[in-house]
Amino acid sequence: MNSSDNGRAGGPADGLPVVAPQLRSLRRRAGLTLEAAARDAGLSPAHLSRLETGQRQPSLPMLLALARVYGTTVSDLLGETVADRDAIVRAGDMEPTRAGGWTYWQAGASGRGMQALRVRVPHGTQGDIVRVHPGEEWLHVVRGRLRLRLGDTTHVLAPGDSAHFDSLTPHRLAAEDQDGVELLFVHTLLQSPTAALCLGPITGELP
User: Fold this and answer.
1) Is the dihedral of CA 129, 188, 68, 5 positive or negative?
2) What is the CB neighbour count within 10 angstroms for residue 174?
3) Which of 174, 176, 192, 194 lies at a CB distance of 3.0 to 4.6 Å from 127, suitable for a disulfide?
4) Using one digit for the tens of pLDDT, what is the confidence trace for 90-142?
5) Please, which residues bridge with residue 93 across strands?
6) pLDDT digits (tens, 9 = 90+) for 134-181
7) Apex CA 161: angle with CA 157 and CA 163, to 5°?
């Protein structure tokens, strides 16, 4: 994931009229000057000013840094409201989505700071893709065996085993056996209708 500025000068990008005032409002609510907030978030005052006026598009690392400085969440920075989300997800409402050979069922509400999924990984799919991104991941093996590579170490997890790790650790997941593996999976990377704002186009490369 690239933390560089993906916006263009000259005007707000799509969706930014909502985000930009929210960034400014939360900074003022935290009682921080533009200079102080930029320093604490590792940005220049000019860059933060452009984010607040919609002239630049914030990356996810920038939003994570600003959320930490302002004592809030990325969802709050993006203006998402909790009241609109249903706390219960019924099995009948879990529609499967397929990407890269994997099958996903959304097991939690959309637009939250944590994304919960039920995942089926067939044998021989995406095992060579190494992922690195901000956040944390937790997974639990329901059926089959999972081959999990974390950094330079490979682990084989059996049904009932779990793993919880920092997503900045290079990692890859693959089914150990021919019958594939089924997982419960939770990660803190923002997944919502506004995800493209900070992540770029959604490619289907999950988790």
Assistant:
1) positive
2) 20
3) 174
4) 888 888 887 768 888 888 776 566 778 899 999 987 655 677 766 788 999 99
5) none
6) 678 899 999 999 999 999 999 999 999 999 998 888 888 999 999 999
7) 85
C-alpha torsion sign, points 136, 140, 144, 148 = positive
CA distances to 58, 77, 122, 171, 207 from 127, rounded to whole Å, are 31, 34, 10, 10, 12
Q: How far apart are the first and last CA of the chain?
A: 13
- Sheet with 146-150, side-by-side order of all strands: 153-157, 146-150, 171-175
Burial of 186 per CB tally in 10 Å (0-12, 13-18, 19+): middle
b/e burial code for range 151-173 (CB count within 10 A of at least 16 → b): eeeeeebeeeeebeeebeeebeb
Each residue's pLDDT tens digit, 174-189: 999 999 999 998 887 5
Q: Token match 């607040």: residue? A: 52
